[in-house]
Each structure stands twice: as structure tokens, then as C-alpha cells.
Amino acid sequence: MIDAESVRKLREKIGASMIECKKALEEARGDEVKALEILSRRGAALAEKKAERQIKAGIVDCYIHTNHKIGVLLQLGCETDFVARNENFKNLAHDLCLQISATNHKNIEELLSGQFIKNPEKSVKDLINEMIAKLGENIKIVQYARFEI
Predict the structure, then answer these.
(1) Local structure of residue 141 (DSSP, 8 states)
(2) Which of 32, 77, 101, 133 sits in a 20 to 30 Å window from 112, CA-based?
(3) pTM, rounded to two decimals
């Protein structure tokens, strides 16, 4: 039997629904590390399914480094305005801007395959896939520009 506190802790770490967290913990027989792996695999599979969905909405976000020598402009796309207004989506856009400013990737594919600076155990693609699983919509980096003096 999986207790509610274990489910809550897992949900806080990965952001999946309570039901998904409970199912993953049951499948992993209470092992949180295995449950995280299960949820990560499920998130990647869900992202793959949603990859063909059309991007019709999104936001533009920016970041200017404190020294005013590096700036980033990012267009992050999603399927609906509802998700585009979601705080988690906005935070993802800002984290991606920080990632782009800290690294100097030449294109989106290179950016996606790079390690996420806030958690080097994840790639940027993993970060986006987690948000796709959490919000239930396709999310893509449409374009970005990085400026440096």
C-alpha cells in the first residue's frame, strides 16, 4: 500500500498527476527512484505521441544578463492559449532563456541535446518532455536568438 505522503513527495519532484505518481510508485513497489524512472519514460512516450500536434499558440520571452553583454529572445510554442498563460509554461520559457544565455548552441537540435544547467542529470529535451507530460500539450522551441557583445 502506497501512502499519500509518498505520492505527494513524488508529485512535487516531477509534477505529474497524483494518479500517475501513485501508479508509478505501485509499479516500482514503493521505490521512489524507480518510480521517477517510470514517470520519465512515460513522459517521453507521451511527448513522442504529441509531437505531431500543431503548435498554434505560445509566448515570446527574453533574458538580459546582469552585465548587459548577453541577451536572449525566445519563441516557445504550444497548442493553446490556456497553456501559454500557465505559470509552469512561462517558467519553462524563462529557464530556456537562461539556458541559451549560459550556453552558445548553434541551433535548436544542439540546444535540446545539451545538459540542462539547473539539473545536469537532464537534457533540455528531457525538461521539455516533462512539461509536455505535465501540461498535456505539444511544446516546441520555435526559434531563438542570442546576442553577445
Answers:
(1) E
(2) 32
(3) 0.74
What would the grid cell of residue 79 be? 497548442
Element (H, E) at 140: strand 140-148
Regarding beta strands 119-123 and 70-78, do their DSSP bridges make them parallel or antiparallel, or are they unpaired?
A: unpaired
* Positive or negative torsion for Cα 32, 38, 40, 42: negative
DSSP 3-state of 99: helix
Give residue 140's identity as a one-letter amino acid code.
K
Domain boundaries, the chain: 4-50, 57-148
User: In the CATH scheme, what is the homologous superfamily, with its name and number, of domain 4-50?
Assistant: Ubiquitin-associated (UBA) domain (1.10.8.10)
Structure confidence at residue 24 (pLDDT):
82
Q: Which residues, including other chains, have CB under 8 Å from residue 129's CB and lie 6 or more apart?
A: 43, 44, 46, 47
d(CA 82, CA 98): 24
CATH architecture for the domain at 57-148: 2-Layer Sandwich (3.30)
- Do the domains spanning 4-50 and 57-148 agree at the CATH topology level? no
